[in-house]
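Q: Sequence in, structure out?
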Amino acid sequence: MEHLELITQRLVMRPWQNRDKEPFFAINCEPAVHRFLGPLTRDKSDAMIDQANANFAALGWGRWALQERETGSLIGHCGFMPVLLELPIVPGVEIGWRLSARWQRRGLAREAAEAALRYGFDMLGFELVLL
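A: Exactly. Output:
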């Protein structure tokens, strides 16, 4: 299935490209980013991108690369992942995001999450998404 691009007022939520791996790793190295999420090695950071692409290919949904519209900068990611924990709602879906510190506290994660959730509920037929 083709990886859909979503456009919001300030963001382009788009497919991941190989050129995103270096800037995404830089985002993952920022102390404000890994403070609550934990640091990632380059291999694990690249694997997040590969897994997002694999999820889109297999499931038709995943986590989009977030690009700020005005500058074209990669600023993080937002979207869906399968719930992997042993929970009563498995199989299920969770939403998550990760933004560079430079772009935090501007409402961009919320903007991206709202667009992803609208798409998930309206187009993919999700009935429940975990935060």
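The first strand starts at residue 6 and ends at 7.
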